[in-house]
């Protein structure tokens, strides 16, 4: 079945996407209601952003540590420990009170770091034919999970309460650990190496100092800014839907239908990723993402749920293209530094999301949803214009594309 849908993809790529799907299925059984849950617990809007900030900041801090562990440990072991961490988080949330709640968010961030750094590092090592399409498949897995998770989670909450859905989440994560170890053990064969901090530091220096020489700076800048705005929507879009009058059941229906439609759109986008030039994809994705955000801010509830749905599809598909291409570019150019490249690519998403959630909480609380969305859209369009100028400037300068070497002193 998986070969029929993605005939040109290596088996390890599709298996990784399935593992990612199961991880997100277990997590999003309850997390899809997370922002609503936090508000129901009495948290202020800014505190919602802080909670997301804590999770994603933990990912950023833990990612370099996981990168070092990859020198000694099989990535399958690390990703499996990460999945178990998700399971422990699910059980822990049953008893989350006071300081334990914050500790569990840090555990979730550390677990995500283990899974995503190890998975991305494994991808980069595989020397794939088309990194854009491969990462497109990987990035699309949460969309498929979103189709099933809200309905399953809603039924479980209705029948067994919130504790029931958390136990179900734990069971899915446990099953996923066995699937991960069984299907990816071959591609995860790992040769142990010494952890040489000086060498690791030089590898990071090589990657970062190569951004300009390889003309990657404009791409990295634009994709990071899209992630910042995506962090805002990640924390507050469901609250926006509630704010315009949708009930919790309406929100569940919206998410399920959106994810079902986006399954087909993402498959189409994956095919496009194999053909489109990165420069065109980034520019188009940036402009469309900014436009969608401005439309949401200007029109809001005036266009109705159907209109919001259409704009949301435009916004999400644009971010999907930009995100997959960013991962593909980093993977293509730094295959010799798989651990460090995996860390850097993993850090981008949570760091951007953390900043967006934190700033978004302040803005939404101060000026409301509409003005916040308009500012976010104008910001992305401005950054996209800067991206085009930077790309043109760097192309005119024709810099050397050789990897930069760190200073030896």
From TrEMBL:
Membrane-spanning ranges: 12-30, 50-71, 76-97, 103-123, 135-158, 164-184, 219-239, 251-267, 287-311, 347-367, 373-390
One Pfam family in the UniProt entry: MFS_1
Superkingdom: Bacteria
Cellular component, GO annotation: plasma membrane
Signal peptide, first to last residue: none
Gene3D superfamilies attached to this UniProt entry: MFS general substrate transporter like domains
Membrane topology term: Multi-pass membrane protein
GO molecular function, one term: transmembrane transporter activity
Location (main, coarse): membrane
Listed name of the protein: Major facilitator superfamily (MFS) profile domain-containing protein
